[in-house]
Amino acid sequence: MPNLERYISKYRYEILVFCCLAACMLNVFSGWKSRFSYPNQTLFAAGVILVFAIYFLLYPRKESFSERDIIFLIFAVGFIFRLVYVQSTGYLVRQHDVAGEYGHLDYIKRLYDGKGLPDKDVTKYWQFYQPPVWHAICAVFLKAQRFVGIGFEAALENLQMISLFCSSAIMFISHRLFRLFGMKELPLCIACGIVAFHPTFIILAGSINNDVMSLMLSLLALVLAIKWFRKPKLVNILALALAIGGSMAVKLSGGLIAVGVAILFAIRLFGKKYSKKGNLIAQFASFGAVCVPLALWWEIRNFILFKTPLTFVPMLSEKSDQYIGHRSVFERLFDISSIWEAGVYPSRVTRGYLYYEYNIPTAALKSSVFGEYYLGKESAVLSVAAKVLFFTGALLALLAVVATVYMLIKAIKNRKSFENDYGFSVSELAFPAICAVTMIVSYVSFCFKFAHFCTMDFRYIAITVVLGALYIGLLLKDRQKTNKMCDKVLVWGVGISTALLAFGSIALYGSVA
To answer: Of 2, 166, 175, 194, which has the fewest Cβ atoms less than 10 A away?
Structure first.
């Protein structure tokens, strides 16, 4: 029996994953929805009870919860939450560029039918300009399902399972990132809670476009870049090359992470702490030999065949009702009046509002928790949850900016003492901020270049949720060291805000289909 207890203790995460996957497959085949009046809530409650039962019955009892226990349960509930949303959301519901001719689904079906890669000018065929890796993975999964006898419509529905995996993996990769910066205890639990229950990752879990896989690989690249910076070995830089190249092979914008990585490369090459410059240059050459072909083969192929610009993105017409290019720069950046004029939901004429959302920060905040949708608007109870969700999300976003600036100023002003106290360099601290700024600048530029309502969707910079959670956690870790009442209020205030974000997210997204 002691051997069994040690085995369960060591492999409890794997046991959880197995149970969740088993539950996932059972739900796919069992037709559970027709058996309950409230299937979403029933599935969520049953899943949470199952996980807690497994945990408390099988895992050796202790007098108190450890940090590892709490993280385990946060991620378990986070996975079940994603599973409920996926199982309750059809594969054509709340999607981006999926349905319709030459959308993502058409792309997947083309590869599934064995028609090969697009063989005409991709600039004329909507989403066919996208790299085909995501669509090929989905096509192979379709084939596998059909091979074991699953109906075609059910197999299409199950494509969301790939996104569910990617969204769930983001939780674990984020945890690894937080641990690389020495985060632990309450700050770590809060940071993990933000990632586990933030609505943008719930929406992405049900999507069947390439956003979530590219995001997962970009976040993995960020972790691997820090690992390489600390130990500049060939194996580490090759893993980094595969992650960045893979992210760009799924969606070209995944390459934005490369700006921060290039700065880390330069710091290591020209810094005094690492003397083997020749070894570094050889590593960089190996990195380029792996990353560049993997990342750009599709764009190079289209340029050779069709003279397609390497960074081509299709643009809506200025005649589109979503066009907002007539708004001034001041309005686009600083006019946040729609928060009290239109409320917490995205303002759009087709939903009865007077105008399309045009302010970029406001649109980013609203779409970060609602996407482009209006969940719970018709329900008095859920509309309250929606408002709680929006304002706690906005509060945490503001705190993330403040925490980032505070930590960077503190580190730069007291570089030596900071590095001795925290165990990592100022360069490592600045790296996630550089990545976040790069993505935000690119996002804002994109919003001005393609001046339409839909281009302001937060999913393009969803990784900033993780990076913001990182700096929030580091701020809380820093303020925990004092005994000041204001710092205690800050720590517990952020903890309560994170709990409200989780409850609001579960209430809203656990009640929609």
So the answer is: 2
- pLDDT single digits (tens) 320-359: 899 999 999 999 999 999 999 889 999 999 888 989 999 9
Per-residue confidence (pLDDT) for residue 30, from 0 to 100: 47
Specify whether the CB–CB gap between 152 and 231 falls below 8 A.
Answer: no
Q: What is the pLDDT of residues 123-140, one digit of tens each?
A: 888 899 999 999 999 999
Highest mean pLDDT of the ranges 10-14, 180-184, 240-244: 240-244
Q: For residues 467-501, b (16+ Cβ closer than 10 Å) or e, as one string?
A: bbbbbbbbbbbbbeeeeeeebeebbeebbebbebb
Q: Which tokens sit at 404?
A: 């980032």
Count of other CB atoms within 10 angstroms of residue 201: 27
Residue 458: closest CA among 366, 389, 387: 366
Pull the structure tokens for residue 311: 């960074």
pTM recorded for the entire structure = 0.91
Give the Å distances, CA to CA, from 307 to 120, 123, 135, 315, 439. Answer: 11, 10, 23, 17, 27
HEC profile for 205-234?
HCCCCCHHHHHHHHHHHHHHHHHHHHCCCH
Query: Which residues does 110 contact at the CB level (< 8 Å), separation at least 6?
Result: 116, 118, 135
Question: DSSP for 302-368?
Answer: HHHHH---TT------TTSTTB-TTS-HHHHHH--THHHHT-SSPP-GGGT-SS----HHHHHHHHH
Q: Which amino acid is at 384?
A: V
Neighbouring residues of 125: CB distance < 8 A, sequence distance ≥ 6:
102, 118
| Distance from C-alpha of 85 to C-alpha of 88, rounded to nearest angstrom | 5
Listed residue (399, 391, 400, 388) closest to 503, CA to CA: 388
The Cα 225–Cα 264 span in angstroms is 8
Instruction: Give Cβ neighbours of residue 152 (< 8 Å, ≥ 6 apart).
Output: 142, 146
Strand partners, 323: 452
